[in-house]
Amino acid sequence: MLADLHSHTTLSDGSLSFEELVSAAERNDYDVLAITDHVDPTTDHREVAVTVRAEVDRLSPDTSVRLLAGVEITDFEPAVMDRIAREVRGAGAQMVVAHGECLMLDVYSGTNAAAVRSRNIDILAHPGLLTRADAFMAARNGVFLELSALVHASYANGHVFHVAQQAGAPIVVNSDAHARDHLLTPRKVAAVIVGAGGTTADVQRVVDQAPSALARHALKALAAVS
Ligand SMILES: [Zn+2]
Ligand SMILES: [Zn+2]
What is the largest CA-CA distance in the chain? Predict the structure, then answer.
């Protein structure tokens, strides 16, 4: 199963249109792709969620890739993160990603903590130097911790893998694609996991279990807001 649950289009800062991103996913033999454009305090987050959902619904009948509509909650103050997540969910987001405390970006301190405590967030992306306490909270709430395949977002993958293993928190590998050559392949997914300290058994577990477990988590959150 090749699933990628974090990607961007020209609606935010990606370089591919929705059509181009979906056809790139087809070429890489994706089974599942979530399109999760950024929402931030300068955007109308509900409107972005509605637009991504409409594009996903429009393109779904003509592709073999199972498409999911989502957003990446970016640069909001931690205190409002859960509310924003609930509101985008209500506007149609099927996969809600939080833009975590990546080592290479300026992200509010406390973002990771807020994300793993929200039942409306599915994935904490590029969490950087995630604390053990936050990894345990992610495990408790079923929030997936991302190992990123994107160059600048991946420096802490080894740390994230280590604390996630200790806490029993679920892991997912995503491309965070902003361009065509960022998309995943099975080989890249395996390289990201093994490169972060995992074994081939970990690769198998993540590839087999993460997509369906994440779908269950997202559906539960969706049911709670509707
Ligand atoms: Zn991000
Ligand atoms: Zn992203």
Answer: 44
- Centroid of ligand 2 to alpha carbon of 8 (angstroms): 6
Is the model's pTM score more than 0.90?
yes
What separation in Å is there between the alpha carbon of 112 and the centre of ligand 2?
15
Å from CA of 168 to ligand 2 middle: 24
Residue 224 has pLDDT above 80, yes or no: no
pLDDT tens-digit profile of 93-126?
999 999 999 999 999 999 999 999 999 999 999 9
Interval between CA 166 and ligand 2 midpoint (Å): 25
Give the separation between CA 188 and CA 203, rounded to whole angstroms.
Answer: 11
Torsion of CA 32, 69, 121, 78, to 10 degrees: 130
Question: CATH fold of 3-225, please?
Answer: TIM Barrel (3.20.20)
